[in-house]
Design brief:
The protein folds into two domains: 12-63, no CATH class; 70-196, at5g01610, DUF538 DOMAIN, CATH 2.30.240. 20% of the residues lie in helices and 30% in strands. The chain has three helices and nine strands.
């Protein structure tokens, strides 16, 4: 659109020029700050780009698994010492221990049961000492044999033969280590397992 300006009778020759020679119809008002003019000239997509990047950053960090997740820390810790992840259930709420081994303690959300080849009972606290391929001075895990419950005091992996030893102090048994590779759901009641009784 062309707008003709009638400035004054002393400059009649200006009447013939379109307004964009004198004042751009698209220019921002003279009082508008430079930064505001730049934002006004910037495409809408570019103006919103910093906000979109911030939202993506926040959503990535909220959705990413945390290295402080006690379940992950506890099960990774078992693997670090050559033990299967599935020795502990899926309801770990805290883990204390050292990467160098020694005493450790695991807190579960509550007492519960897991059905392996034998039924196992987990106390709310499982503790002991850990070294490569070995859990010793163990407390907090019991196994049912026939009609009796026995506390497991030691767990030891075999010498590369694919087995793991469970020792109660009175009896000991070897099982295939593959049975304990997967982390299992720990259930509140033994009656959840039909084969347990």
């Amino acid at each position: 659109m062309e707008i003709y300006l009638h400035i004054c009778p002393f400059f009649p020759f200006l009447h013939a020029f379109p307004s964009h020679f004198l004042l751009s119809s698209h220019a921002p008002p003279p009082h508008q700050p430079v930064t505001a003019r730049r934002e006004a000239e910037m495409p809408a997509g570019r103006r919103h780009l910093p906000l979109l990047l911030a939202l993506l950053f926040v959503s990535f960090h909220l959705g990413a698994p945390s290295d402080d997740d006690p379940n992950k820390v506890a099960h990774d810790g078992l693997e670090l010492f050559g033990l299967p992840r599935g020795l502990l259930p899926d309801n770990v709420v805290s883990y204390t221990g050292s990467r160098d081994g020694g005493p450790f303690s695991v807190e579960l959300s509550g007492t519960c049961y897991i059905q392996f080849s034998d039924l196992a009972y987990y106390h709310k606290t499982v503790s002991g000492k850990i070294s490569y391929g070995l859990l010793s001075d163990l407390s907090g895990i019991e196994v049912r044999k026939l009609f009796f419950w026995f506390p497991i005091v030691r767990v030891e992996t075999g010498d590369g033969d694919g087995t793991i030893l469970f020792d109660t102090g009175l009896i000991s048994e070897r099982h295939f280590i593959s049975e304990f590779q997967d982390v299992r759901e720990c259930k509140d009641s033994a009656f959840s397992f039909n084969a347990a009784w």
